[in-house]
Amino acid sequence: MDLTFLTRNHMGLKCSETIKAFMLAEPLLRPLVLVIKMLVQIYGLNDPYKGGLGSYAITLMVIALLQVI
């Protein structure tokens, strides 16, 4: 679950910058995320409001995978 509230401590822009930095540092990130997003869509699991995965969650999981490989 990803809940975001607009507060003084909101980290949305920082998270966006972090994802961009990972994309520059790891060339495999973008293609892996795109392939997984396509598979998730094919199987109908791409709607976060119904328990599926959104782009941000998929991106974070791929980053975690690439960090342990």
Classify the oligomer: single chain
Strand composition percent: under 5%
| Main beta sheet | none
Described by the principal axes of the CA atoms, the overall outline is: flat
Percent range for helical residues? Answer: 55-70%
Mean model confidence by pLDDT: 89
- Low-pLDDT windows of residues: none
Q: Count the beta strands.
A: 0
Along the chain, the helix and strand elements come as: HHH
Structural class: mainly alpha
Ends apart, CA distance between termini: 25 Å
- Contiguous helical run count: 3
| Rg computed from alpha carbons, rounded to a whole number of angstroms | 13 Å
Keywords:
69 residues; mainly alpha; 3 helices; flat
Would you write up a description of this structure?
The model has no long low-confidence stretch (mean pLDDT about 90). The chain has helices spanning about 10-25, 30-40, 55-69. About 60% of the residues lie in helices and about 0% in strands. The chain starts with 11 loop residues before the first helix and ends with a helix. The longest helix is centred in the first third of the chain and has 14 residues, at about 10-25. It has a domain at about 25-69. The protein has 3 helices and no strands. It is an all-alpha fold and about 70 residues long. It is flat. Helix 2 crosses helix 3 (about 55-69).
